[in-house]
Amino acid sequence: MISKFLNKNFYINFSIVISVYFFDRLTKMFVIQLDKNNLGSDIFNSTYLNIVLIWNKGIAFGLLSFNEDYLYNILSIIIAMIVVVLVIMSIKSQGFKRYSLLMVIGGALGNLHDRIFFKAVPDFIDFHIGSFHWFIFNVSDIFITFGIIFLIVLEISSNKEEKYE
Amino acid sequence: MSKYRVTFFLSFLIFLSSCAVVKEGFKSPKQKTSDEFLVEKKSPLIMPPNFNELPLPESSIKKNKEEDNTIESLVSKSENKTIENKENKNQSLENSILEKIK
């Protein structure tokens, strides 16, 4: 049973998740170190991109950022449960859908790591046009967002194919 | 069915990603602290009412006694000396008068 599970595909899938996770960790560690060296000031400034370290205690768009520990822990448990659901979904799915799910899992694990060890997620990429700033995000957010976009596109396209048939 | 799945995926996106709003990120942490004007002022420091009635330590009592003894002894000695001096003076006067009478 285990040997059947540990086939070539498993190693490929696992390496995708691990590579996303470690790439995210490396960038976060690098930016945290730069922030320490710069004593909390801006790390990089340009006309369209700033690198500034900000700690987010909540979920997307800074929502649900609680000061109470038990609410924060409940939120972390919900996120961990979502990751488990995604893992089950990736085992059941195939092809490009699986790879997009693996991207989401890798990014989610990166953010979950920070939630557990730092009690907040470091965000540092700040795209802006003049004074208009987009949300500050990190590398794992990029993988999660693109993974979810791919999943939605696949879902819509498969639905259209079913309709035509 | 696909609509439900899309909303399902979008909810995953909201929970798993951690992008922050720029304004919230730059908020000063002072805003979350308590109101400094609601803190009650502490009353000024006052000496306890029975402060003078507190017992002295033994070593200081001994020292005081020793000092008293020395002072007493000094005073008593000086008194003795003055009496002796007075007696001596009286005797010398007597002697001088007696000598003159002779």
Could you give the order of the helices and strands of chain B? HHH
Number of helices of chain B: 3
Radius of gyration of chain B: 47 Å
| Poorly predicted parts of chain A | none
Q: Which segments of chain B are poorly predicted (pLDDT under 50) over 5 or more consecutive residues?
A: none
Please state the oligomeric state of the protein chains shown: heterodimer
What would you call the structural class of chain B?
mainly alpha
Q: Tally the helices of chain A: what do you get?
A: 5
Q: What gap, in angstroms, lies between the N and C termini of chain B?
A: 155 Å
Strand line-up across the major sheet of chain A: 1-2-3-4
Give me the Rg of chain A, rounded.
18 Å
- State the total count of DSSP E strands of chain A: 4
Q: Which percent range describes the beta-strand content of chain A?
A: 5-15%
Overall tally of structural domains of chain A: 1
Helix percentage of chain A: 55-70%
Largest interface: A-B, 40 and 21 residues
Set out the fold topology:
The complex is a heterodimer of chains A (165) and B (102).
Chain A: H1 2-5, H2 8-37, E1 44-45, E2 49-56, H3 69-92, H4 96-117, E3 121-129, E4 132-133, H5 139-164
Antiparallel strand pairs in A: 1-2, 2-3, 3-4
Helix pairs in contact in A: 2-4, 3-4, 4-5
Chain B: H1 2-16, H2 22-25, H3 58-101
Quick summary:
Chain A has 165 residues and is of the alpha+beta class. Chain A is 64% helix and 13% strand.
Description:
The complex is a heterodimer of chains A (165) and B (102). By secondary structure, chain A is an alpha+beta fold. Chain A has one domain. In chain A, 64% of the residues lie in helices and 13% in strands. Chain A has 5 helices and 4 strands; from the N terminus they run H-H-E-E-H-H-E-E-H. Chain A has helices at 2-5, 8-37, 69-92, 96-117, 139-164; strands at residues 44-45, 49-56, 121-129, 132-133. In chain A, strand 3 and strand 4 form a beta hairpin. In chain A, helix 2 packs across helix 4 (96-117). The N and C termini of chain A lie far apart (37 Å). The mean pLDDT of chain A is 85. Chain B is mostly helical and 102 residues long. Chain B has helices at residues 2-16, 22-25, 58-101. The radius of gyration of chain B is 47 Å and the shape is rod-shaped. The N and C termini of chain B lie far apart (155 Å). The model of chain B has no long low-confidence stretch (mean pLDDT 72). At the A-B interface, strand 2, helix 3, helix 4, strand 3 and helix 5 of A face helix 1 and helix 2 of B.
